[in-house]
C-alpha cells in the first residue's frame, strides 16, 4: 500500500492539506510583498476535528517565518453571550501593551468610541451607538494594520464567536480593499443561526474559501499511524484506525496518543482494542476517563468548563471548593491527561488564565456532562466569584443568564447594571438578554415597570416593534410616575414612529397629555404631539392643529425646552404652509439661547430626538437663512461623528448637509454628501424615512446638475416611487419625481405625479412653493397643451411666493412666469427673476435665471455670467445649455 505523507508538515493533522497550505502560503507571500496590497479574508470550513485548528496553527508558523505580526482568538460555545469577546482577544493585547496615552493618541477620535468595547477605556454614561462602535473597531484594526504590517488575524471556532464580533468581522470584510491585512477564520457548517449566521455568512462572502476540509483517506490515515507509532504498524491495524475514526484528523491523533499511552502494539492482533480505546477520548468515554482521575479532578474540570475563559487555578479552586494545593495537583493531572493545557503564549489572549482546554470538543463534552441542576448552581457561584473579583456586572451576567429564576432582587439589580454596561459599550442585544432575564426573576412590583422601560429603551434602535410591547406593558403597570412616565410615553411614540405607526404615535402622546395634571409635563407631551403631526405626510391628524399651535406658541417666551420646542414646531408649520418667512425666522430665533441650541436640546440629547432640530434647521434653509441652517447641519454632523453615532442619525446629518449644499448651489459637494448619506442609510435598512431623505435629495441634485440618466438609474435602483413614506420628506418627493419623469420624456406620467403632489399638498395646507414646487413644474409641463391652466398655476405660485416673501421663492415664480410668456414681457419677467435671485443665497437658481434671461434677451454678456455661475455650481446641464445658446447666437425662447 502506498503511504501518503505530507513532507515537512508542522503537525500530523496537516496530512492531505497540501492545497490548503499552498493557498495560505500564497496569501502570506502576497501580504508581505507590498504594504499597499488589498487585504484578504480566507475561510476554513469543516466539521469538528477535521483539522481547522491545525491549519490556523500552520498559518501562524508560515506568517511568523516571514516576519509577520500574528494575533489570534477563539470563539467558545459557552461564551457566545459575552459581547466583543473574540475581538477583544484579538486586539486588546496589542493596545494594552501601549501606554494609555499612546493608545489614546493612536486611536484618536475613535478611542472613546471603540475603547470601551475593547475593554481599554471606561464607558461613558450615555448609550453608545452600535454602528459607531463597529466603525470605530474597523478603524482601530486599519490603524493597527498600518502600525504592525504585515499583520495576520486568526479566528478559530468563529461559529461560536459572539454576535458583536461577527458583526464587526462582516464590517471589516467590506473594507479589506483599503487595508493590507490577512484574516483567516475557521468555522463549522451550521452551529450558528439568526443575526450571527447572517454576519458570519456576509464575512465569508467577502473573502475566499479554502478547499473543503474532508476526512483523511485510508492511505493518509495509514501514513499518519506509521509516522506516530512506527513503520512496523501493519496494514490491518492502520485500516482499523481509519474505520474507528472515520478519518477525522483530531480523533485519529487522539486515538494514536491513547495507543501510545496504553503501550498497545500496532498489529492486527490488537486492532480490536482500538474501538474501546477511542471511546475514552470523547463523549461518555471522556467522562469515564475524568472519573478515573478522581473526584477532585472531575470537579476541577467541571469548574473550568463553567468559567470557560480566564481559567486560573485560584478561581477554579474557589468554584470547586478545593484548597489551593489540591487544585494545583488536579490541574497537573488534567494536563497530563491532555484535557487541559497551559495557554499558548503566542495566542496573546487577554483573559489572564493559567489553563485552557486542549480542544473545544473536550470543553463542550465536559460542560455538557455536568448535571443540569449542578451546572446552574455552579453558574450562580461563578457569578458571585466574578463580582467579588471586581470584574463588573457585565462579566458576571453570562453566568446569571444561566441561573434559575428565584425571586432574587440582587440578581435583578445585577442584571440591570449589566444591561447599562452593555449599552454603554454598544451591545444592545446583550443588554436585552439581561433585562429579559431580569423580568423572569421577577422584579418587585414597584420595579417591574422600570425594568420594562429600560428594556424598551434598549431595543428602541434595533427592534421598535418589540419596544412598543414592552413600553405599553410598563405604562399599564404601577411604578412609572412623573418625569419617568412622560419619558416612557415619549419613547413609545418614537418607537411607533420608527415602526411606521405615526397616527398611533400622535394618539399616544395626545391621550397622555389629556390625563397629565402637571402643566410642564403636559406641555412637553403636547409639543411631541405637534412634532409627530408636523412630520406626518398624510392627512391632518387632528382638526385645527395649526390654529391650536398658533395659540400655544403665542404664550411661549422660550423659557424652557418645552416652550422652545413649541416655537420651533410653530415656525416649521408656518414655513411649510408658506406663511411669512420673516415670522418663521423670528419664531425660530426665539427658540435659541444667544443664537445657539439650548442645553438639553443638543443633537445627541435624547429627550426630544433629532426630528425637532431638523425641523428648526430646515425652517432656516427654506427661508433663505442658509448661514444658520448650514451651521446647524454641520454641528449635527460633527456631534454625531464625535459621539460615534454612525447609524441613522449620521445618515440624516449627511443628507441635511447635502440639502444645505444643494440650497446654496454647491451641487458637487451636495452630491458627495448625499451619496455618503445613502451609503450609511443602506446599512440601516431601506424603506425608512432617512432613506427617502437621502434618495430624494440626491435625485433632486442630479437633476439640477443635468445628470438625468444618473438620476433615473438611481430612482430605479432604490425604488424612488409610490408608495411614499408616512413622514414628510424635504423637498417634496412627488414634485421631485414628477420633474424626473418630465426630464426623461414621460410627460403624461410626470403630469400625473405633479397633480398628485398638488392634492397631497392641499390636504395638509403645505403651500410653500419652494418646499413643494409642484405648481411651477406643472405649469411648465402644461404650457403647450393647456396654456390657460398653466398661466393660472404660475399666477397662484407667484401669489404664494410673494406671501412667503423670500427672494428665492419670488425669483423662482418669476422664472416660471417668464417661461410661459413670449417677447418683451418674457424678457421683463426674466430680468425681474434675475434681480430677485441675485439677492438670494441659492446660486444654482441664480445661474439658471441668468442663462434663461441671456437667451431671451439675446445677451452674450448675460449668458457668459450665467455660464460662469453654472460652472461654479457644477450644473453641467446648464453649462451645456449656455454654451449651445452662445454657439447659435444666443437666440431662442425659454420654455
TrEMBL record:
Keywords: ATP-binding, Nucleotide-binding. The keyword Nucleotide-binding applies. Residues 16-184 form the Orc1-like AAA ATPase domain. SMART domains: TPR. Transmembrane segments: none annotated. The keyword Nucleotide-binding applies. InterPro entries: AAA_16, P-loop_NTPase, TPR-like_helical_dom_sf, TPR_rpt. PANTHER family: TESTICULAR SOLUBLE ADENYLYL CYCLASE, TRANSCRIPTIONAL ACTIVATOR DOMAIN. This is AAA family ATPase.
Amino acid at each position: 500500500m502506498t503511504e501518503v505523507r505530507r513532507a515537512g508538515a508542522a503537525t500530523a493533522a496537516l496530512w492531505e492539506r497540501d492545497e490548503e497550505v499552498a493557498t495560505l502560503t500564497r496569501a502570506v507571500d502576497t501580504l508581505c510583498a507590498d504594504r499597499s496590497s488589498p487585504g484578504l479574508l480566507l475561510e476554513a470550513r469543516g466539521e469538528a476535528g477535521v483539522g481547522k485548528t491545525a491549519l490556523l496553527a500552520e498559518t501562524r508558523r508560515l506568517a511568523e517565518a516571514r516576519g509577520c505580526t500574528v494575533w489570534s482568538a477563539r470563539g467558545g460555545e459557552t461564551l457566545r453571550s459575552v459581547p466583543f469577546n473574540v475581538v477583544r482577544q484579538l486586539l486588546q493585547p496589542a493596545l494594552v501593551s501601549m501606554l494609555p496615552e499612546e493608545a489614546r493618541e493612536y486611536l484618536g477620535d475613535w478611542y472613546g468610541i471603540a475603547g470601551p468595547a475593547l475593554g481599554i477605556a471606561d464607558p461613558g454614561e450615555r448609550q453608545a451607538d452600535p454602528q459607531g462602535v463597529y466603525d470605530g473597531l474597523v478603524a482601530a484594526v486599519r490603524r493597527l494594520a498600518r502600525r504592525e504590517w504585515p499583520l495576520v488575524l486568526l479566528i478559530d471556532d468563529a461559529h461560536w464567536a459572539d454576535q458583536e464580533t461577527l458583526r464587526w468581522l462582516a464590517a471589516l470584510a467590506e473594507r479589506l480593499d483599503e487595508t493590507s491585512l490577512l484574516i483567516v477564520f475557521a468555522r463549522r457548517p451550521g452551529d450558528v443561526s439568526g443575526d450571527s449566521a447572517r454576519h458570519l455568512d456576509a464575512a465569508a462572502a467577502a473573502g475566499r474559501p479554502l478547499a473543503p476540509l474532508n476526512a483523511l483517506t485510508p492511505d493518509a490515515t495509514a501514513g499518519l499511524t506509521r509516522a506516530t507509532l512506527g513503520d512496523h504498524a501493519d496494514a490491518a491495524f492502520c485500516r482499523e484506525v481509519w474505520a474507528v475514526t472515520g478519518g477525522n484528523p483530531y480523533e485519529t491523533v487522539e486515538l494514536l496518543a491513547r495507543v501510545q499511552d496504553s503501550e498497545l502494539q500496532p498489529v492486527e492482533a490488537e486492532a480490536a482494542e482500538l474501538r474501546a480505546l477511542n471511546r475514552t477520548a470523547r463523549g461518555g468515554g471522556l467522562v469515564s476517563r475524568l472519573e478515573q482521575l478522581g473526584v477532585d479532578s472531575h470537579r476541577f474540570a467541571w469548574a473550568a468548563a463553567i468559567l470557560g475563559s480566564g481559567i486560573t487555578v485560584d478561581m477554579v479552586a474557589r468554584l470547586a471548593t478545593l484548597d489551593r494545593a489540591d487544585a494545583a495537583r488536579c490541574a497537573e493531572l488534567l494536563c497530563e491527561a491532555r484535557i487541559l493545557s497551559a495557554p499558548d503564549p503566542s495566542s496573546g489572549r487577554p483573559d489572564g488564565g493559567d489553563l485552557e482546554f486542549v480542544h473545544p470538543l473536550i470543553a463542550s463534552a465536559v460542560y455538557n456532562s455536568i448535571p443540569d441542576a449542578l451546572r446552574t448552581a455552579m453558574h450562580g457561584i461563578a457569578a458571585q466569584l466574578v463580582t467579588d473579583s471586581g470584574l463588573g456586572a457585565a462579566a458576571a451576567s453570562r453566568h446569571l443568564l444561566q441561573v434559575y429564576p428565584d425571586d432574587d432582587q440582587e440578581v435583578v439589580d445585577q442584571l440591570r447594571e449589566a444591561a447599562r454596561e452593555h449599552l454603554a459599550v454598544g451591545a444592545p442585544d446583550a443588554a436585552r438578554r439581561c433585562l429579559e432575564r431580569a423580568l423572569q426573576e421577577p422584579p418587585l412590583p414597584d420595579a417591574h415597570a422600570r425594568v420594562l422601560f429600560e428594556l424598551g429603551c434598549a431595543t428602541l434602535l434595533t427592534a421598535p416593534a418589540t419596544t412598543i410591547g414592552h413600553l405599553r406593558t410598563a405604562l399599564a403597570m404601577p411604578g412609572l410616575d412623573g418625569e419617568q412616565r412622560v419619558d416612557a410615553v415619549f419613547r413609545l411614540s418614537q418607537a411607533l414612529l420608527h415602526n411606521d405607526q405615526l397616527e398611533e404615535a400622535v394618539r399616544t402622546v395626545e391621550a397622555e397629555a389629556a390625563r397629565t395634571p402637571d402643566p410642564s409635563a403636559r406641555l412637553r407631551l403636547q409639543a411631541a404631539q405637534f412634532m409627530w403631526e408636523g412630520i406626518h405626510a398624510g392627512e391632518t391628524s387632528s382638526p385645527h392643529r395649526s390654529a391650536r399651535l398658533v395659540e400655544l406658541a403665542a404664550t411661549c417666551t422660550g423659557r424652557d425646552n418645552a416652550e422652545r420646542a413649541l416655537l420651533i414646531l410653530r415656525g416649521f408649520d408656518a414655513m411649510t404652509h408658506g406663511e411669512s418667512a420673516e415670522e418663521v425666522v423670528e419664531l425660530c430665533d426665539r427658540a435659541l439661547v444667544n443664537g445657539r441650541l439650548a442645553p438639553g436640546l443638543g443633537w445627541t440629547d435624547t429627550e426630544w430626538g433629532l426630528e425637532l432640530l431638523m425641523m428648526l434647521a430646515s425652517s432656516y434653509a427654506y427661508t433663505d437663512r442658509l448661514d444658520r441652517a448650514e451651521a446647524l447641519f454641520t454641528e449635527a454632523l460633527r456631534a454625531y461623528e464625535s459621539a460615534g453615532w454612525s447609524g441613522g442619525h449620521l445618515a440624516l446629518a449627511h443628507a441635511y448637509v447635502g440639502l444645505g449644499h444643494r440650497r446654496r448651489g454647491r451641487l458637487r459637494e451636495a452630491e458627495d454628501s448625499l451619496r455618503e448619506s445613502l451609503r450609511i442609510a443602506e446599512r440601516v435598512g431601506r424603506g425608512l424615512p432617512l432613506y427617502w431623505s437621502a434618495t430624494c435629495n440626491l435625485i433632486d441634485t442630479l437633476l439640477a446638475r443635468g445628470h438625468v440618466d444618473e438620476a433615473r438609474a438611481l430612482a430605479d435602483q432604490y425604488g424612488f416611487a409610490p408608495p411614499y413614506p408616512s413622514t414628510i420628506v424635504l423637498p417634496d418627493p412627488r414634485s421631485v419625481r414628477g420633474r424626473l419623469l418630465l426630464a426623461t420624456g414621460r410627460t403624461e406620467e410626470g403630469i400625473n405625479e405633479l397633480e398628485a403632489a398638488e392634492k397631497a399638498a392641499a390636504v395638509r395646507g403645505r403651500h410653500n412653493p419652494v418646499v413643494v414646487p409642484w405648481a411651477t413644474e406643472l405649469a411648465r409641463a402644461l404650457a403647450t397643451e393647456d396654456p390657460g391652466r398653466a398661466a393660472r398655476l404660475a399666477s397662484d405660485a407667484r401669489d404664494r411666493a410673494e406671501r412667503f416673501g423670500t427672494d428665492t421663492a419670488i425669483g423662482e415664480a418669476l422664472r416660471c412666469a417668464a417661461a410661459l410668456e413670449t417677447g418683451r414681457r418674457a424678457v421683463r419677467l426674466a430680468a425681474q427673476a434675475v434681480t430677485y435671485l441675485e439677492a438670494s443665497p441659492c446660486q444654482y437658481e441664480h445661474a439658471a435665471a441668468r442663462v434663461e434671461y441671456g437667451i431671451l434677451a439675446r445677451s452674450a454678456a448675460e449668458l457668459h455670467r450665467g455660464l460662469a455661475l453654472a460652472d461654479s455650481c457644477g450644473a453641467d446641464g446648464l453649462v451645456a445649455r449656455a454654451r449651445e445658446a452662445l454657439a447659435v447666437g444666443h437666440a431662442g425662447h425659454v420654455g
